[in-house]
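Standup notes, structure subgroup. Blocker cleared on the nicotinamide-adenine-dinucleotide input:
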Amino acid sequence: MAVIVHEENGKTLSEAIAEVEKSIELTEFACSLPQLVQGEILEVSKGVECRSERHPLGGVASIAPFNFPNMVPHWTLPKAITLGNAMILKPSEQVPISAIRIAELLTEAGLPDGIFNIVNGDRESVEAICDHADIDAVSFVGSTKVAKIVYQRATGHNKRVLTLGGAKNYLLVLPDANHEMTSSDVTASMSGCAGQRCMAAAAVIAVGNVDGIINGICEKAKTIIPGKNLGAIISKEAQTRIENYITEAEEQGADILVDGRGATVKNKENGFYVGPTVIDHVTPEMSIAQEEVFGPVLSIIRVDTVEQALEIENSSQYGNAAAVFTQSGGLAKYVAANVSAGMIGVNIGVPVPREPFSFGGWNQSKFGVGDLTGKSSIEFWTKLKKITTKWNPEAKTNWMS
Ligand code: NAD
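Run returned:
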């Protein structure tokens, strides 16, 4: 499975192996769900008992993006089927092969026919899923633009819907942060999977003088080489979009400290690469400070106080992840409490919560209630039945007739 991810998506083989390992972890958690979905029972009045049970929804759909062709299907598929549903997966048309391998392995493992199904295609297939009367729930992971469309269209057909959108993750770096750990974590966060991750560091908000850490980030970024320890960008169009953001920032007065434009890889001349790029003196008004670039590009926004840093983070339309790097417990707690994002890292550059905690952002990074993974998956992929029983017709009280 990792080789397929590596070949169809273009991420490095070690990143693809890590992706499949995460899928295994997600599946292991899903296997514990039958033990976790126990209902509740309570005698609510003399001789009257209330009981709740979780039931599957029926037929559910999962629409996936290009950047994690193996892991994102594992956010939804193992939970939906261990909770009793049948699933239709619509993989990204840019990476349709991983899904087929997952289906082959499930068949080999003995999953009955019809429980897991794949529908390929792009917009038209997604619209058909949103409109189809026999589909009870729709989950979506992708850009905010499409997440909004899918949320509105599928809820318009009275379905249960949760859609995860894009991201712009700000990492607040304070002057007392550990130099080595912070520069390593930030560099890995901005460059892993060539920055094509919804949890990638998009911008460092440098509070006060953190020049030593910024120098460390630049030094480390220069050791990340396209085609060696940096994978490809998904398409020519994406490569052009990323490079245009860098050029526009430069024209608006930002300083390019490390420039990844024009990267090529020997013997892979037809591949699309952008090298790690670090841009200093980005201002909050610039597009590169606000919009999702989705490439290995780190903006540095300089401020004097933690309050100014929080104001920038809070003004983002997104809210997937945020992080703070500091040695001060009090400041870490203060920042964690005041950033407007769903997943927060303290001295962690990619703060993905591990099971049983769930994955999911805030603001325009997610539409709908709850999360798709972790314990929240139970709420999303099942419906609750409440049974009230009375066994003592002789009782004098007859308030529940
Ligand atoms: P995308 O929105 O272009 O595509 C996602 C899915 O929607 C694909 O299956 C695609 O076929 C379909 N689609 C595309 N346009 C459509 C339309 N107009 N109507 C209906 N369906 C349509 O996203 P992408 O480029 O594949 O993935 C990258 C995006 O996904 C980034 O914005 C990234 O942040 C986001 N993402 C978010 C998370 C998260 O957890 N929040 C995780 C992974 C990726």
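Discussed briefly. The first strand starts at residue 41 and ends at 45.
Next: hand off to the docking folks.
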